[in-house]
Amino acid sequence: MLPTPIGDTPVWDVLPQYNRTVIDRLEYFIVENTRSARRFLSRAGIQRPIDSLRFAELNEHSTPEAVAELLTPVLAGTDAGVISEAGLPGVADPGADLAALAHLHGVEVVPLVGPSSILLALMASGLNGQSFAFNGYLPGKQPERGRAIRHFEKRAQTERQSQIFIETPYRNLKLFEDFLKECNGNTLLTVAADILQPDQLIRTAQIRDWKAKTPDIHKRPAIFILGV
Length: 228
Prior knowledge:
The protein has helices at 11-14, 17-24, 34-44, 64-75, 95-104, 117-125, 144-159, 172-182, 207-210; strands at 28-31, 54-57, 80-83, 132-134, 162-166, 188-193, 201-206, 222-227. By secondary structure, the chain is of the alpha/beta class. A 5-stranded mixed sheet has the order 4-5-8-6-7, with helices on both faces. Helix 4 (64-75) packs across helix 5 (95-104). The longest helix is centred in the middle third of the chain and has 16 residues, at 144-159. The mean pLDDT is 96.
């Protein structure tokens, strides 16, 4: 499981050098997107020609049969590197389906160290890092979205459990506005955008304070966290 940088951060600024030795010996890569994976390997300075490598895609559209086919070379003895679009494969990522199948067949799954926007946002939020839940995407439409926000806010309040969410970048502002509309004024909201980038934004404030100024998060990869 090969992590990739978040955004355009230089590869070896955020990944340990050990990852380079693993990448350099692999010839088969299972990737979320071939184009971005080839770009990552080029930026990483892989020693062998990229055109000599084998790529197979695993994404949200992959059927169970397609996932099983991806594992066939591994079962025959070929090591594979799994690469997501950004961050950690298998975390909020379809790579988890392949890892589950590998375990079913007794294939060793090796995670390498790299950045996770989810955990980096939580680290810097000041919210509860002892108990937290990653909830992915909230419902896209009302009234389901409003009910979901109030449900997770209640969990944050009663269980003191940080509630973490992601959103498609062009919908960030709508989700932010829905948090302001649905949550109590004293609930804490963390907004973390473009983590590890020069224009990184990570701020935690009460809902009532967020109402005074909307953050610049339109079309920027972002994480949202509710807490108390």
